[in-house]
Amino acid sequence: MEEQPAYLYLQIAARIEKQIQDEVLRAGDKLPSVRTMCRELGHNMSTITQAYYELESRSLIETRPRSGYYVCLTPGRRLAIPSSSSPSSKDAKGNPDDLISKVHQDSTNPDITLLSLGVPDTSLLPVAKLNKAMVHAMRSLPGSGTSYDQVQGNEKLRKEIAKWSITWGGNLNEKDLVTTSGCMNAVAYCLLTLTQRGDTIAIESPAYFGILQLAKGMGLKVLEMPTNASTGIEIEALKKALSKDKIKVCILVSNFNNPCGSSMPTEHKKEVVRLLEHYQVPLIEDDIYGDLYFGTSRPSTCKSFDESGIVLYCNSISKTLAPGYRVGWVAPGKYKDQLIRLKLNHSISSTTITSEVVADFLKNGRYENHLRKMRQTLYSNSIKYISAIARYFPEGTKVTQPQGGYFLWIELEKSIDTTLLYDQAIKYNISIAPGRMFTLQEQFDNCLRLSFGLPWTGDLEKKIKLLGTLALQARL
Amino acid sequence: MEEQPAYLYLQIAARIEKQIQDEVLRAGDKLPSVRTMCRELGHNMSTITQAYYELESRSLIETRPRSGYYVCLTPGRRLAIPSSSSPSSKDAKGNPDDLISKVHQDSTNPDITLLSLGVPDTSLLPVAKLNKAMVHAMRSLPGSGTSYDQVQGNEKLRKEIAKWSITWGGNLNEKDLVTTSGCMNAVAYCLLTLTQRGDTIAIESPAYFGILQLAKGMGLKVLEMPTNASTGIEIEALKKALSKDKIKVCILVSNFNNPCGSSMPTEHKKEVVRLLEHYQVPLIEDDIYGDLYFGTSRPSTCKSFDESGIVLYCNSISKTLAPGYRVGWVAPGKYKDQLIRLKLNHSISSTTITSEVVADFLKNGRYENHLRKMRQTLYSNSIKYISAIARYFPEGTKVTQPQGGYFLWIELEKSIDTTLLYDQAIKYNISIAPGRMFTLQEQFDNCLRLSFGLPWTGDLEKKIKLLGTLALQARL
């Protein structure tokens, strides 16, 4: 009997749909490739492709360039996205210092499931290849890397970073760059270069607690700006603040923001640079998550539109290759000479051998190859985590749907205090990041940040389920 | 005929004396061991030993414990030691920033003979053994050192440093220590912890330009104190300043000071700590050269006498093992919690793998073995350099005779401007450190610092001779 292809592809699609309904296949899972399906089922390519098209048209699966087909978020329950923040200008009475210290302290316990910190799991890192590059660096560096490097930083590394900057329209050359001991060190050097005690800086809200604590420690006033959970800082609010307040510096995490996962649309980036140029206010742009996009192309940066050198662009490989290497950098625009002098005074130079290893790794497309895999894993994780939150968290839970990076920002019902939830969860060896860590004001008490850097397992799903139950109890 | 030992040892002594007179053997040269001489000359041990005693009693050679016999400084011409400094309280009109930048910039040229910077020559470093430890660290560290280390620093390293502190009466334990990215980074973190813009710090004069520039960059006022070229800061002057001025912090390089080579006598250390305790002024002690003593034992530190936690003790392995590793530490006394928080904000953690390598190297006496050789080489170098300066530099030259470390401080006649001498010398690819780098005031224009870290060679001697000639010309 002759095959009836029209029926066949629908049969295949129905079979896959049933697997999704039965949760044999779950949100974020990768489907077998078309080629594999052909081989396994004994059908031809076009049949399988048609079946996949069918599923895609019904939003059950989605295609991801150069990676394949993935099961979409279960349409059953989609959670709302948290609303824009509206920070007041009043500082909180309490200070999240102790909370932050507690979360850090607990995180050193190896039994803890670390959903609190944005640290890449070792399984995500190309450890064997880095070790190979390390042995190579020992052989090729004069004195095997025991000598001081240039104050500005390893020249080879700066060249590779400059080449790489073309991916986000950076167009830098090695002379524009200064290496640092990670991205926070870059931000710290920028603030030390640009500010004095008592100055005011403008930043998103919620914002990465590391930057808030750094600014506070330096005696800076922090102006937390209304921020949209999807598109970042509210431009109108920034415009108003610039015209009204004496803002010395603006700090933004423009892509896949920590903690919100928000990304500024390209038009917003352009507009922010235009505004800051107008008011002659420098921008410290932290782009540490920029390479971890889930979409088809690298997002731009504010630095891409900086013509007068007011953007100090900070980045590192701490989220993509090796946090322990302490390799970061800054393109400080017109503040370069000041920043190099400051680096010399504060730490002389960067670690020679780890800089060389990263330079070596960036060469010949190895970094891009590694990132491609890492992005897929993080994307798949993000879907699985969101899906689990939708399944197990109380009614009224909102969650962001980031297009890259490491973090979900979760907004629970007003009645749930996530600092108390932390204390409950840590009893079960689960660590989360309560919302209060991400502000110096009284807000986000019902929010938390969840990192999806840990590999997805059945055990992890149980942990998220437990977290949902604890949140539910905390509401009662 | 029977041998006449009394004559024989004198004959041997006379032969060696002639070699010294003929400059076949020169100041700082090591004599063959007693055992080797026995074998070579076919005499017995006691004869050779007696010959060496004879030369020692005539101050031609000297014995150094666990190392052997060395030719003393040629008695022909001994240079005077520079006098105590007497800085005014007026700041200079000009600033040595540009001079310092020029010296740094020139130093990156590989053709330059680098007498300016205190950087250990690679030949002094145990590179092969460090590489072995690096491979070991890659194997033993979880994730091969790609992960963040503890904020306070690698625990193994802190344990080893704590053990090592017994050599200077430190009696620390690992909880007392925080690792940093080198010693200057430790000093910078101390200053960021303790001071605010506008505060006054007291320091030796001349002082290491890195600390002066750091302080100036932070907006601090620097009170340069009268300092003795042999015994360091003048206690009476410090006492007076403490009672009169509002000093927020004192910074001292207590052993083998940079640039003077001065070392505070133990009684001075005790007295300074007592004084600072009385006035409740914290002391940042930079002991980076302390392990490089030429005498029989490790000198004490101010920290050795600190009972109330006011001394913040800074050190690193940048002068002894591997500057490029960026491994340093601080024992911050009662300021520990503040400093750890500051480190977290500014750089999160130290480089994991280089910390581990240093920890590994400190174990099992390998560091001590390495230091023993390094100290002998530096001692021998110091004698050869001083000897060459005595030979080739103009009349009226004064030079320190440090008992450890890396540096000679040379005072020329008042009429010689060492900043101009720098410009002359660099034409011949020789780099020196002009005295003006080491003060923010108008002083030391006729002084320079010379590092004796480069291995002694005939070519190097020619360079020092040339330097002497240029100085002579500069006087005319």
CATH C-level of the largest domain in chain A: Alpha Beta
The amount of helix of chain A comes to: 40-55%
Secondary structure tally, helices of chain A? 15
Category from helices, strands and their pairing of chain A: alpha/beta
- What is the CATH topology assignment of the largest domain in chain A? Aspartate Aminotransferase, domain 2
CA-based gyration radius of chain A = 24 Å
> What's the average pLDDT of chain A?
92
Description:
2 copies of one chain form a homodimer. Chain A contains 15 helices and 17 strands. With 476 residues, chain A is of the alpha/beta class. In chain A, the strands form 5 sheets. Chain A has a 7-stranded mixed beta sheet, sandwiched between helices. In chain A, strands 13-14-17-16 form a 4-stranded antiparallel beta sheet, with helices on one face. A two-stranded antiparallel sheet of chain A has the order 1-2. The interface between A and B is large, with 54 and 55 residues.
